[in-house]
Amino acid sequence: QVQLVESGGGLVQPGGSLRLSCAPSGSIFSINAMAWYRQSPGKQRELVARITSGGSSNYADSVKGRFTISRDIAKNTINLQMNSLKPEDTAVYYCNAFKYGINYWGQGTQVTVSS
Predict the structure, then answer these.
(1) What are phi and psi of 87, to 5 degrees?
(2) What span, in angstroms and rounded, lies between the C-alpha atoms of 82 and 67?
(3) Is 87 helix (H, G, I), strand (E, B) or coil?
């Protein structure tokens, strides 16, 4: 089992920045990849950014150049730096871990971009 705890959500004005963090615990060995997803009301959950155990990353087209996913090995966390935020980035953001074919999810953290 893998447990995931997110932090860092909140309210920010358009053009602002936020940093999300995800702390995995439990059976964290052999996690193949970790990712951030988001879901807005009435929409399907979508992949925002993903980073593999080897350090490769990929992003949704809508966030390329604005968001950066990274690993902090010392703190054992996965971070999502979000810059130039837009109202359409408003959503609940979920941390995800993929291990041996199983997806693990955090409880989500709300990000609201509004003036």
Answers:
(1) -55, -35
(2) 4
(3) helix
